[in-house]
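subagent[fold] <- orchestrator: predict structure for attached chain, return tokens only, no commentary.
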Amino acid sequence: MSLKLEANALECVRGGRRLFHNLSFSLGAGELLEVSGPNGSGKTSLLRMLCGLLSPIAGEILWQGANTRTLKEEYLKELAYLGHANGVKPELSARENLRFTGALTNRRPDEGKIAIALERMGLGDSEAMPARALSQGQQRRLALARLLIGEKVLWVLDEPLTALDSAAVQLIQSVLAEHLEAGGMAVLTTHQPLDIRAGKSRRIHLAPVSIY
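subagent[fold] -> orchestrator:
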């Protein structure tokens, strides 16, 4: 059975405003969905819905044909979420941060995979430094390194290119392409144009807010 994520007739209301309604889409293995729209249009709210952090007013989200509310942990174990905040522990080193990530999922990451992930993200020479000593761009790359050790099928990324220089943007695009080529899936928001030729890419645009 091939992987499939579906959103059916989703509606989101925040602060007395309807951000979107009757929003539907589907995503399969090897596919990327880019969510665009002006600030306040509900992009982050949609991503939080996909992660189970926010409930829609109406509609449902399905994974393999089953409602994600029913699946709960069975669905979440397949998902990696990166929000606006990097979520790194400032007192821990880059390597220790990745170990901590593994502990949260009750899986101890292979030390070799951690080393490879840090090297891939350009943090090989900084792995022993406390995260607080890293630049904002380095901290973002550390947060993204979690994707490389998590072995998750579905990546949900909110502005993953924030604070990254052009070289790092190219790197993350390569990482995304490899994920799609391996049969992974991704949903993301970004204000920067993407150049990912692997897999199948599509875009949905959220309209400006309206009074509810």
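orchestrator: received. Logging for downstream: The beta strands are 4-14, 17-28, 31-36, 58-63, 66-67, 79-82, 154-158, 185-189, 200-205, 210-211. Helices lie at 43-50, 68-71, 73-76, 94-104, 111-120, 136-150, 166-181.
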